[in-house]
Amino acid sequence: MKLSIVLTLATLPSALAASGYHRTPVGEYISSGCKYATEAKVTFCKKSNAKRFDCQCTNENALASMAYCGYQETEHSPDKRHSFEKSFIKSCKGNITHDDIEAAYNRALKKIVSVKDIPNFNKTVPVKVPVKYDHTAYVTGYRSRESRSRNKDDALEMSFVLLCFWGLVTVSSGLVHVSRRMAPTLWLSANRSLNNITLFRKLRQYVTIPATHRGKHTEKYGYLGFLPTRLESIIIFIFVTLSVVFHAVRYEFVFPNTSYKTRHAQMGRLVGDRSGMLANCLFVLTWLFASRNSIILAFTGWKQSTMLTYHKAIARTAIASTLVHTIAMLVHTLDLGKDRYTSRSKTGWWRWGSVATVAACVILIQAQAWFRMYSYEIFLYLHILLAVFVLAGAWIHTAWFDDEQWYFACAALWCLDRFIRLARMGYFGFRTAHARVLSAESGIFEVVVPKHKAWIAFPGAVAYVYFLGTPLFWQSHPFTIAPAEDGKLRFVIKAKRGATASILRRLLASPDQTASIRICVEGPYGNYAPIKNYDHLLIYAGGSGIPGPLCYAKHLGELALSSRAPFVKLYWVVRHAADLDWYKDDLTALARYSNIQPIVYITRPESALATKAEADSFSDDDSNEGPASSPQKENSLSEITTRLPYSKQLAHVQFRYSRPDTAQLIAEDMADFAGASVAVMSCASPNMVDDIRAAVAVAAGSHKSSTIDYYEELQVW
């Protein structure tokens, strides 16, 4: 029951958007065929419209001729006859009834004549009797209408296939996530059984875990930016392939045609209609996957970066579909003649469609990785502005054709997301936080703020922080919540550009490098990784990526005091010994947990003796000591730990003075934990995280008796 509710909510916007459509009934084809056939050689009304049925609805001879044609063509099919009557009545806006059509048919049976039987016949002069239709003309009218209507029906069904595809991806991921959380023991047991199957292990090694190409996922891949994982790439490839196929197949060109004289005009219209309808669907998916507060995130357990990976792929496909629509309709219009182009280009639907297309094309350029990395804030605000123009332009454009419900869904999704963001901010409120510098050289500072009791900060949680006392108070930045005392939130922040740089300058200007600042917190976001039921947990953190891993370690340590919890090996890689100052209290607190083994790698230990700035972290007696000479280097490194003023507090921490070989580390740990269930978590530098992913993929493919799962906390987009 809960699952059905989640699925309904997740697909509701798209379902509502498409609910106004239905497959074209055969009666409309028959009506169109009969209208064209009865008017092909005679005139019933002085004023007649090729698309409307005004004459057939009001002129008794036209009505009788229409009824005769419809009844003759449906003589052996009651269902088709009923559909014809229903369609004809609808075309007349309910001004005629079934009885009227039947009476007109009976009248036609008595008085209908052929064109050749009309004395002094003149096509321009309205006839005074019902006239027999030309069957060949009927077939032309029928097939002309059928070709275009079925093309639209196909586009609708193809749109639903795309919606169902992403529904399948969401449901599959959701079932895995729910199984891990609701039945972790059963999940691990099933995995252990499946590990006996070579194909399953190789599938994990080569498909579900690794990066797409050259092991790069969180590390930037040139101008392409960040590549998806291999599984994400396969999903995107299937989706794009489906989209391309749907744009290319099942077109029926009909000649002669009642609407288009040339193949180009007909082809442009059919391709334009198909691509336009597919673009409508794709834009709904684009907005759905852009939401920070989407129920899909909670149901699937995806990271925000995963959602945005799919968002980018869908958005690019939507823009490509929009371009196909624009070019096809331009070809169609130009082939109809210069006058038609001139008249159409002055309409509101043409102009607003052009606005949406141009804005979408600009988005395609400015959303490239190189632009995002050059200035993310400029990218973000320009992206939002352009998205407004896309939404407004597409909405107004499609409203002319009664298709605007798709963009109502887009706007509803966007507004709902923004409303929830404001609600989260309003619930937290504007609070005074205490900020202090942790490392001036590294640009690290800490922000601690009180919170509501009901505001739950779970391990791995992320929150967006607004710094109200800065010139860039409207900016929000995502930060992992660090361990803190009860009733408070703590963020350890590495200053970059923008608001965080402004805060750091203010702190450095203060005599004690502290300050009180007003902030607002939006969150929490993220999902708690279901790791407590594994036998062992390996955590690899690097530099400022330690807050989330520390929260997990502390949580599992507390859990072990009262119940079963995994044994945790927490690896933290830092450049300098002085970096330990950031979290020395948190590292010290781990001493009380028997199931936590902290291991710290210091990659540049000799710099602790080489510079005055970092020597301040050591005892005063050694503060003026120079760098160790080569013969003494090994002894110097072994003494660094004892030089720390809090070395006794960290006696439970194992220090290693080198850069870790993550592949070797994981291989050794997996050998030690053979036959057990092991979770591997990473939050470090991009290249280190990618190395860990690659090593875990190899381990998952080669360890038959172990259950190995990978949880990546680092997010990049």
Describe the fold and architecture.
- Residues 1-19 and 608-631 have low confidence and may be disordered.
- The protein has 717 residues and is of the alpha/beta class.
- Strands 4-3-6-1-2-5 form a 6-stranded antiparallel beta sheet, sandwiched between helices. Strands 10-9-8-7-11-12 form a 6-stranded parallel beta sheet, sandwiched between helices.
- 54% of the residues lie in helices and 12% in strands.
- Helix 26 (686-702) links the parallel strand 11 and strand 12 (707-712).
- It has 4 domains: 26-133, no CATH class; 147-394; 429-525, Translation factors (Elongation Factor Tu (Ef-tu), domain 3); 536-618 and 627-712, 3-Layer(aba) Sandwich (Rossmann fold).
What descriptive keywords fit this protein?
elongated, disordered N terminus, 12 strands, single chain, about 10% strand, about 725 residues, alpha/beta, six-stranded parallel beta sheet, 4 domains, six-stranded antiparallel beta sheet, Elongation Factor Tu (Ef-tu), domain 3, 26 helices
